[in-house]
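USER: Write out one fold?

ASSISTANT:
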Amino acid sequence: MRPADIVRTCRQKGIDRLAVTDHNTIRGALEMHALAPDLVIVGEEIMTTQGELLAYFVKEEIPRGLSPVETINRLRAQGAAISVSHPFDRLRHGAWREADLAAILPLVDAIEVFNSRCIYSEDNDRALAFARKNAKLGTVGSDAHWHSEFGVAVLRVPQAPTSGAEFVAALARAESATRLSSPLIHFTSTFARIWKKVKRFIGPQ
C-alpha cells in the first residue's frame, strides 16, 4: 500500500489518528508521518525473545531479538507508550506464554485486548480477561494490511494524544469499537507475500 493512499483512506473513513506499527522497523511510519504528521503516530511492533510488544510515539527504532526487559528499557528512555501485541493468539509466532507475560506486566502500560486479525475470538477474550484480572489498560488494533481493514478496530478518546504519556492517559477514558476481520483476509496476505517473492525471483521485466 502506498502511503498517500493510506492517508486518503483514513481521511475518507474519518480516522483522526493512525498508529503505524510495522514489524521491527519505523521507516514506514516515519515516511507516513512526514506525509501526514497530524494523522500518524510513529510506532513499532517489536519481536523480543519471548513475544511481541507494541510501542507508540517511538523516536528511535528498536531492533528485534532483545529481551523484553531490554526492549522496554529502550522504549522508556524515549518516552514511548508500551502495549503487548495479541498476547494469546494461538496462531501467532509473537504470542506470549502467560508466565512470561506476567513477569513483565508491571513494566508495560497496556495489553492488546482485541486484535481484528485473531482467527479465534476466544484468544481476544482471554487477553481481555487477563487485562481486567491484572488491572491493566487495554488497546485494540485493526492490524490492517489492506485498505478495507482500516478502522475495523478503533479507540475513541476525548482528545488525540501527542505523546506516549498522553496516549496512556487517554486509554483510561477510551471507548472501543471493534469487529473481527474476515478470515479470508489471511489468504490475501499469504498471496501477497508469495507474489512478492515471485517478483523478486523473476526480476524486473
